[in-house]
Design brief:
binds 5'-O-[(S)-ethoxy(hydroxy)phosphoryl]adenosine; Rossmann fold; 630 residues
Length: 630
């Protein structure tokens, strides 16, 4: 089995993976079920860019997630589902049932004309059917594009259009805490503006009344009665696309990051098993939403490939109270728990009294992902949740990397608060200065790049390979640039310091400043806006918007409300600014570029050193902004 069991073994494996990467990954890949073996392990060129793994290999990832386990594990629980409302019943689905339900839904998709290579959009709550639909797409060779159910109709439409999806799978509504959201109504608005969708399959979840359009909208529960439960898996090439997942970047339009079948499969499983040191019969829970990469790789694919029991949670950490996470941990005797720093900080704010009711004894390993974890949150997690006996794995990775790249291996790598510590075998990080020169040695800081491919790396941006090259492979020649800043300490341990581009990380969600600006600018009275991040005690970063308005008689309070509503409609609630400041002008260079560095300083409240302001067109603007800053 592909599992490292000591630090010396890690060192050996790491060494092997660098000296002979092809041999290394070939060994890892050979534990899976391939319909036919690859004829070449790797071919790559970061300039084009073109990266291919297990070339010529044929497989279907769902045969590895499901069929492969049927012989020995058919009655093992694959998914435990915890509803938003704790009074509703938990659902447990065995590997055999999951296999059947995925096959059934695969047939539904086929009955709607879906075939290999089609793109299918999923806009759903965190219910088992989301995992089932995702796997069903993979089973028939369709490319899934899961859109987080917090995005607005406009954002959904944009993503459907970009990928030219022909089927949309959604639900009548969703429950999130004490809120209910009518997803179908949002989907309807989106579909008014998209013409690629031929069928929309609707799962009944909340029971609210929805409009069903004849010959386009179909109920999930009716469709599954029309087909049988056996569906042979489509045979895919290792380099056929598996999914697209949209993520934000420095420029306005979200990017459809594309991952391919073979390499993604190998790395998702390998990283899952090793980082969490998964042991057979562990109960594993990742609290992410499947709308993000963490949910793809570490709720669905990684755990199911490993034959694990994975928990899916529909709700939020504070409903019905701030003990919900811990209640679920005790209820299902969770051994491995994986969440985001923002959730830890939010729960930390409720104090430790809430925790008294729970034993948390089953926990062995705690994970963190999505943003830098601050020392205080790390210590709180370690002491109060891990009772000082659990390993904490601070896992650094990205939508584009497909899997965890830098992280301790639980109970093996010595941890250090706020440090993601060491690269996984096969991963070759390097720090470069602004000229792209590698900074060698320890006790240094720079821009984090990767100089060698790994199996689950991004292959392209859907429909825009040029952009893929520009964004990731052009800043520093011959390297993949992550967009993150990073330190390497005296012992060679890595600490991610945060984004160095115009992306902000709000509660672990990546949001492009340009995207928010475009949203704000949709308000008819907005002339111009500039958005930056600022430190936020719970969210990690908050969104600060500086806005120039046209003259009007509308009150500022009303305008703030309207602008927030505009952003909500354009993108979704996650992109709503935390602070809005109306300004008379923005600090611009003589060539008209906004000096965000200055705006960032003001938003952070660090007014003492503004740096070089000599290139400013009008330095007085800065004084004005400081005077009125929030
Ligand atoms: C940030 C989430 C510090 C980072 C899996 C990265 C982190 C971006 C960590 C990717 C971590 C993620 N420590 N920063 N452990 N994990 N990040 O694509 O800035 O949603 O570039 O993938 O989150 O966010 P994404």
């Amino acid at each position: 089995m592909n599992k490292i069991s000591s630090i010396s073994e890690y060192n050996e494996e790491y060494q092997k993976s660098i000296e002979n990467p092809e041999q290394f990954w070939q060994d890892k890949a050979s534990t899976f079920k391939w319909r036919s073996k690859w004829n070449k392990v790797l071919s790559w060129d970061f300039n084009t860019p073109k990266v291919e793994w297990f070339i010529g290999g044929k497989l279907n990832i769902t045969e590895n997630c499901l069929d492969r386990h049927l012989e020995l594990k058919s009655d093992k629980i694959a998914i435990i589902w915890e509803p938003n409302n704790p009074e509703e019943a938990t659902i447990k689905i065995t590997y055999k049932e999951l296999y059947k339900r995925v096959s059934t839904f695969s047939n539904v998709l086929k009955s709607h004309g879906a075939k290999k290579g089609d793109r299918i959009c999923l806009y759903m709550p965190m219910v088992p059917e989301l995992a089932i639909a995702t796997l069903a797409c993979a089973r028939i060779g369709a490319v899934h594009s899961v859109v987080f159910a917090g995005f607005s109709a406009k954002a959904l439409a944009e993503r459907i259009d970009d990928a030219k999806c022909n089927i949309l799978i959604t639900s009548d509504g969703l429950f999130r805490g004490d809120k209910e959201l009518c997803l179908k109504a949002i989907a309807d608005t989106a579909l008014n503006n998209c013409n690629s969708i031929k069928s929309c399959i609707v799962l009944k979840r909340t029971g609210e009344k929805v409009t069903m359009l004849e010959n386009r909208d179909y109920w999930w529960h009716e469709e599954i009665l029309k087909v049988n439960d056996s569906c042979s898996a489509e045979i895919m090439d290792s380099e056929d696309p598996l999914f697209i997942l949209y993520t934000s970047g420095s420029t306005g339009k979200p990017k459809g990051v594309q991952h391919h079948c073979g390499g993604y499969m190998v790395y998702a499983e390998y990283s899952f098993r090793n980082v969490f040191q998964y042991e057979e019969n562990d109960i594993y829970w990742c609290t992410a939403d499947i709308g993000w990469i963490t949910g793809h790789s570490y709720i669905i694919y990684g755990p199911l490939l490993a034959g694990a029991t994975t928990i899916m949670f529909e709700g939020i950490p504070t409903y019905p109270d701030a003990g919900r996470f811990w209640d679920i941990c005790d209820k299902h005797q969770v051994n491995i728990f994986y969440t985001a720093p923002t959730a830890i900080r939010a729960l930390q704010a409720y104090g430790t009294k809430v925790l008294k009711k729970y034993s948390l004894n089953s926990l062995k390993t705690l994970g963190s992902v999505g943003e830098p974890i601050n020392e205080e949150a790390w210590q709180w997690y370690h002491k109060n949740i891990g009772k000082e006996k659990c390993a904490i794995v601070d896992t650094w990775w990205q939508t584009e990397t497909g899997g965890i790249l830098i992280s301790p291996l639980a109970h093996i790598t010595k941890t250090k608060p706020t440090f993601a510590t060491l690269p996984l075998p096969g991963i070759q990080p390097c720090l470069v200065n602004s000229e792209g020169i590698e900074i060698k040695g320890n006790g240094v800081q720079g821009n984090l790049c990767l100089k060698f491919p790994w199996p689950s790396m991004i292959r392209t941006i859907y429909g825009d390979h040029k952009r893929c090259k520009e964004v990731y492979f052009s800043t520093y020649k011959g390297m993949y640039f992550t967009g993150d800043g990073c330190k390497r300490d005296e012992d060679g341990l890595y600490r991610i310091t945060g984004r160095v581009d115009d992306v902000i990380n709000v509660s672990g969600h990546r949001i492009g400043t340009a995207e928010v600006e475009n949203g704000i600018n949709e308000h008819p009275l907005v002339i111009e806006s500039a958005v930056v991040g600022f430190p936020h005690p719970i969210k990690g970063q908050g969104i600060y918007a500086y806005i120039i308005l046209e003259n009007s008689s509308i009150s500022e309070d009303k305008l703030v409300t309207e602008i927030l509503e505009t952003v909500k409609n354009e993108i979704g609630s996650i992109a709503k600014p935390d602070k809005i400041q109306f300004v008379g002008g923005l600090p611009k260079t003589r060539s008209g570029k906004i000096m965000r560095r200055i705006l960032r300083k003001i938003a952070e409240g660090s007014l003492s050193n503004m740096g070089d302001t000599s290139t400013l067109l009008d330095p007085l603007v800065v004084d004005q902004i400081i005077k009125n800053s929030k």
